[in-house]
TrEMBL record:
Location(s) in or outside the cell: Lysosome
Oligomeric form and interacting partners: Homodimer.
Cellular component annotations (GO), alphabetically ordered: extracellular region; lysosome; membrane
Gene3D superfamilies to which the protein is assigned, alphabetical: Aldolase class I, Golgi alpha-mannosidase II
Record's keyword annotation contains Magnesium: no
Chief place where the protein resides: other
Organism: Drosophila yakuba (Fruit fly)
Catalytic reaction list: a globoside Gb3Cer (d18:1(4E)) + H2O = a beta-D-Gal-(1->4)-beta-D-Glc-(1<->1)-Cer(d18:1(4E)) + D-galactose; a globoside Gb3Cer + H2O = a beta-D-galactosyl-(1->4)-beta-D-glucosyl-(1<->1)-ceramide + D-galactose; Hydrolysis of terminal, non-reducing alpha-D-galactose residues in alpha-D-galactosides, including galactose oligosaccharides, galactomannans and galactolipids
EC number: 3.2.1.-
Record's keyword annotation contains Signal: yes
Gene field: Dyak\GE14068
The protein, known as: Alpha-galactosidase
């Protein structure tokens, strides 16, 4: 009898030790999360009288949950509706110390909103901050971590973005894992998005990616994206310049996050919109839009819902791509994807990015060797933005010629034969 109990208790202990050593093993985000988030487009607009359709309010999130479904984004894979900053009252509840959503802008409370989102078959995300305050000055979690983790679970939250304003950077290496543990302890699976490395990088500290992988499902590596090509290019350059230390850590369950998609807003042209979508897919980035879904023009919506490009982003191997070559201001970005041949040759998604702004599309040839496309049987080539462009089979001893618009991209899948 005692022996059986011993084995039983020993088993439980072993399980607990395993669980501790595996850290955040919540089985979530096996593919880069896809969804919609308020910050880039709607920032901290809180005046609902002046801007009834834009203010951070339950209406904005209900409207976007509905649009995700009615406009076909949900079918394409966009799933999370995420409230960013500015949803809170400036003070916690006096008696319970719980966080309180703004009473005027969220009059029905977050359970009602969460139900609305879930009833649409979508998932609900929420922003908070590890420090004393959020970046926009609302109360942060630091002194109430256990209570807040439980409150999130009680609101049926599925995704938490934990920012890092008004916090000691030196506390983050222990504080972020601690909050992740508290989220896990609620028993509700919640994707955990950490901003911790972005703050460390900013302060000149080297993030510990092994620890991040253990404790977070995704993490913001660097600066916020703004609505411009310049901002987009700065982020691309940051990821490319630092790819040796960043790229290896992205993978199923733990992703690098270059920040939101700008498509559908004011700053990017049609070509530049394709460019962001292609490079985000090469980087295995979370595809989190931030736009007014009612105002997205049809041709931009087509880019956002391009199934072939989304399939690259969501490729099951989860290997993040890299910038592999740059010539005459044309950059080559490349990502290994499925299918893989019996002999171990990967297929590849390859994006050719033009950093040129001289008028005409720029024609440029590359050899198979330069592109690292050396499968002896060759590759069948698919133009991911133009299915009507039939490209046939590419042999590694031949040249691949592409023609890229200024500040634009061409994007192909090379399927190994
Ligand atoms: C920081 C984050 C942004 C956004 C704002 C909100 O700047 O990096 O993504 O969440 O805070 O205040």
């Amino acid at each position: 009898m005692y022996g059986t109990w011993g084995v039983f208790l020993g088993g439980i202990l072993l399980l607990q030790v395993l669980q501790l050593s595996m850290g955040l093993d919540n089985g979530l985000a096996l593919k880069p999360p896809m969804g919609w988030m308020s910050w880039e487009r709607f920032r901290c607009i809180t005046d609902c009288k002046l801007y009834p359709d834009e203010c951070i309010s339950e209406k904005l999130f209900q409207r976007h949950a509905d649009l995700l479904v009615s406009e076909g984004y949900a079918d394409a894979g966009y799933e999370y509706v995420i409230i960013d900053d500015c949803w809170l009252e400036k003070n916690r509840d006096n008696d319970t110390q719980k966080l309180v959503p703004d009473r005027k802008r969220f009059p029905n409370g977050l359970n009602a909103l969460s139900d609305h989102i879930h009833n649409q078959g979508l998932k609900f995300g929420l922003y908070q901050d590890y420090g004393t305050n959020t970046c926009a000055g609302y109360p942060g979690v630091i002194k109430h971590m256990k209570l807040d983790a439980q409150t999130f679970a009680d609101w049926d939250v599925d995704y938490v973005k934990l920012d890092g304003c008004y916090a000691n950077i030196s506390d983050m290496a222990t504080g972020y894992p601690e909050f992740g543990r508290l989220l896990n302890e609620t028993g509700r699976p919640m994707v955990y998005s950490c901003s911790w490395p972005a703050y460390q990088e900013d302060a000149g500290e080297m993030p510990d990616y092994e620890s991040l992988k253990q404790h977070c499902n995704l993490w913001r590596n660097w600066d916020d994206i703004d609505d411009s090509l310049e901002s987009l290019m700065q982020i691309m350059d940051y990821f490319a310049k630092n790819q040796d230390r960043i790229q290896p850590h992205g993978g199923p369950g733990h992703w690098n996050d270059p920040d939101m998609l700008l498509l559908g807003n004011y700053g990017l042209s049609y070509d530049q919109s394709k460019l962001q979508m292609a490079i985000w897919s090469i980087m295995a980035a979370p595809l989190i839009m931030s736009n007014d879904l009612a105002a997205v023009r049809p041709e931009i919506k087509d880019i956002l819902q391009n199934r072939a490009v989304i399939a690259v982003d969501q490729d099951e191997l989860g290997i993040q791509g890299r910038r592999v070559l740059s010539r005459n201001q044309i950059e080559v970005w490349k990502r290994p994807i499925t299918p893989v041949t019996k002999n171990g040759h990967h297929s590849y998604a390859v994006a050719f990015v033009s950093r040129r702004d001289d008028g005409a599309p720029y024609r440029i040839p590359f050899t198979g060797k330069e592109l690292g496309l050396m499968n002896p049987k060759g590759y069948s080539v698919q133009d991911l933005f133009d299915a009507s462009n039939k490209l046939g089979v590419f042999q590694s001893n031949s040249q691949f010629i592409t023609r890229v618009n200024p500040n634009g991209v061409t994007f192909y899948k090379f399927t190994a034969l």
